[in-house]
Amino acid sequence: MNAIALSCITFVCVSGGALLAMFLPGHQLSTEDKDVVRLGTGLIGTIAALVLGLLIASAKSSYDTQSAQIRQLTANIIVLDNLLAQYGPEASANRNLLRRGVVLLVDRMWRENSSDSAKGAPFTATDASEAFYAKLQQLSPQNDAQRSLQARAIQISTDIAQTRLLLFAQASNSIPMPFLVVLIFWLTMIFASFGLFARPNAIVISSLLIFALSAAGAIYLILELGQPFAGLMEISSAPLRNALPPLGS
């Protein structure tokens, strides 16, 4: 289920709970009964606030980490191409393979990270990446400078592969649905307690709807940050896709 749909469900549940509670006889409760409800609501509210804060912080940290990994991947690819250019014309085939591989890499990364069905599939190396690495190993350096360049290129290729695998492993780090259901239930109970002791009027209803929208917005923010390769907060693929200019340009 996408972030917008789940946020809308949250808004309906939370606002609906608050509005329905207004029609319950909360004003007929004794002072002791009201205190019990308020204490219970305070406990749930504290737990929900802590959970929401931790989830937002965790989702933002994960988003920033993956964004930094994409930038590192882009930088490594540019450095790798520069090393191959310094190696000489013997590495032209490698540079061509690198350019084709980058396009395939971007398409695959954004596709498998935005598709639920692709997230469960095992990782397999592409033919382009295997061909590039094999071609890199087959280079025959003629002097110490070329040997050094080849060794550095192999090391950076390994770093790129490790970053790629990290991004693949992080693709399944989504929040479990039962966890979200419990969190939405807590929010619904909290807002129901708000409506229980409130008299229905335009100001109260408008305020509760705004508060419910804010709670739904928090859920939306958590879910959006948790899927950095899709949605409104998608990490742009343009820097990585356009990292290498065409040969001869």
Give an overview in words:
The chain is an all-alpha fold and 249 residues long. The protein has one domain. It contains nine helices and no strands. It has helices at 3-21, 31-87, 92-114, 116-119, 127-137, 144-170, 177-196, 202-225, 238-241. The longest helix is centred in the N-terminal third of the chain and has 57 residues, at 31-87. It starts with a helix and ends in an 8-residue tail after the last helix.
Features of this protein?
single chain, 249 residues, mainly alpha, membrane, transmembrane helix, DUF4239 domain-containing protein
Nearest-integer average pLDDT: 86
The assigned structural class equals: mainly alpha
Q: Label the overall shape.
A: rod-shaped
Rounded to an integer, what's the Rg over CA atoms? 27 Å
How far the N terminus sits from the C terminus, by CA atoms, comes to: 44 Å
Per DSSP E runs of 2 or more residues, the count of β-strands stands at: 0
Q: What sequence of helices (H) and strands (E) makes up the elements?
A: HHHHHHHHH
Strand content: under 5%
Low-confidence stretches: none
Number of helices: 9
InterPro entries: DUF4239
Protein name: DUF4239 domain-containing protein
Transmembrane segments: 36-57, 177-197, 203-223
Pfam families: Bestrophin-like (PF14023)
